[in-house]
Fold each of these.
Amino acid sequence: MNIMSNGSFLDEMSASNKQSELVKKLTAAWEKKNTKAARAGGASLMALSLAACGGDDDTPFSQADIDTALTDASGTAHADVDAAITSNDAVIAAAVDITTDNAAAVTAAMTD
């Protein structure tokens, strides 16, 4: 069997190809634009990061500033930063309820 094509069918086929080519061109242009923006954004972010990390800090700290940093909320002065940070570990551990009461509260909340 022989199929004869008319002109409109061929025009539609070439239009489909043109549309596909147009989509490819638009996609390529969009990717190029986004790549440029990403490069520019990354470069400025990197520059800001490096600027924040580098350089000297000439801010003077007095002994009173250091003593204040080593003093906890209860007024106890600690010998070093590690001691100041871990000074309230026991209080935090005691405040956290890890008993079966939690299980009862969860069960009650789930069944209500």
Amino acid sequence: MNFIELDNFLRQPNDEDKFFNQFIHDNGEGFIKNEIKKVYSLNKNDNDWVINSSKMMKENESFAIHQHKRFVSFEEHRHDFIELIYVYSGEIRQKINGNEVNIKAGEICILDLNAMHSIEPAGEKDIAINILMTESFFNSMFMSSLSENDIMSKFIIKAIYHKKESSEYLLFPSSNNEFIQMIMKRLLCECFDKKVAFDTAVNAYIILLFTEFLRDYKSIMGDSKVKDLNIAIITEIKNYLYKNYKVADLKTTSEYFHFNADYLSKLIKNLTGDNFTGLLQDIKLKETCTLLKNSDFTIEEIMNRVGYNNMSYFYKFFKKNFNLTPVEYRNLNK
């Protein structure tokens, strides 16, 4: 399939377009809501309409690509999957968590899990593609597939997507980005052609797509915002360790931040020049000093409170850093 054939294919009403259009003609718009629910939802609760991945993806699939249905409105609903909406032509008018969002030709919008939105009827020339992804697919594709050395890139992807105060959607004004338009068209050709190993090709194009998003985002940020982001990243990690230094280790900390352990180690090294163990030990030492100066706990009690269980190691480690024993440090600072 070439781009001309793709254009012709997308502009032709598909079977579902014809079905819903005929249904409205025969029954009126008042009945279409329940019919749509039968097709897309397991949940028939009018107050909480969920479009389910099991209705949109085949068994064992982690992503699916569908052309948006024209001529019908979708009342407020949410999904149990992540949705990427690409407008091929015209525009798609939505309300996302109460915000008016008009996605124009060439633009891409990403909706988080369970983001509430409604969609106005699309006209004949309003053509959109929905890429549906499970959360595990999203994480594996965009947190694991980029360069292992590009620590900042991975964090930016996580930060810009998972930042909950962002109203649970991202709108990329990508209409003038020719590379993104080419990626999307090639992706769609692969999807609708379904040649051998098309799913592998689609995965590759999705990675390219998000890599291009990342490049645009980083170019917009500028050096000062990157510096601010660096500070925010390490502050968030340190705050967690200060609250959990007694029990924290690399495994539990990486699980808390939804990173793999190797990635978290590289992230900390990149931002502080120290490794995870060094950062944690520094925090433990600071807390030890605070307790030695400001409490009446015994040395053994302090050792236990900060997460050490070997008195000999504790003394040697403390003296190595301060050239004083804990007792000597307390006596000098009380």
